[in-house]
């Protein structure tokens, strides 16, 4: 899966092989510089040079700068200072590795975050939208019924799945004649709430078919039942979104 994110545009491309960007000659220079630095450290540590000339300069830097810094940051705060030195060495190694290999330290974590962000249910919502648009483009079904089916399924994916064949409060199998969006679907006569609607039995059957994708049952329904089902879908979505979809007013029914 490819991602197109504005955060990834300014980042350099990931090298296919280590050292591809700098070439072998540059890598050799860097390796020689690190080896020379390590060798100088060993020579100064073991006092192998005479205390004159370059040896005097190296010993002075070692004694006046390195030893006080080490004594304060390492010896005085030991063993906590081990974390500082190991952390600094790890950070320096990572910076050198990313510079030599041209691998961005932020690109791969960014892609990982994008993959986690596209996990369920967001990916299901995206696939559901693509399926609805494909069905509209192919004119397999009426656009209004595709929209109603998409809205019901989208609410189900988001965790607000309506129930049209069982009572949403006691679970008694239907069919039931009472329907309340705030309750999440149909209600039996014992559980019905004040203000519940009483749509036709055929309308409730159409709603169940839209949710399940039973298109033969939807296409066999009468226009008045389809229109009533569209009103129920709009009311159900508006209740759970806590606002109405103003764009529904421009959809031809």
How would you sum up this structure, described in words?
The protein is mainly α and 253 residues long. It folds into two domains: 22-101, no CATH class; 122-242, Recombination protein O, C-terminal domain (de novo design (two linked rop proteins)), CATH 1.20.1440.120. Helix content is 58%, strand content 2%. The chain has helices spanning 23-46, 54-75, 81-101, 107-117, 122-138, 143-157, 201-212, 215-219, 223-241; strands spanning 178-180, 185-187. Helix 5 packs antiparallel against helix 6. It is elongated, with a radius of gyration of 35 Å.
Q: End-to-end span in angstroms?
A: 37 Å
Which class of secondary structure composition applies to the elements?
A: mainly alpha
Strand order of the largest sheet: 1-2
Kindly provide the radius of gyration, computed on alpha-carbon positions and rounded to a whole number of angstroms. Answer: 35 Å
The CATH superfamily title of the largest domain: Recombination protein O, C-terminal domain
What name does CATH use for the topology of the largest domain?
A: de novo design (two linked rop proteins)
* Overall number of domains: 2
Tell me the number of helical segments per DSSP (H or I, 4 or more residues long): 9
| Poorly predicted spans | 1-22
Shape: elongated
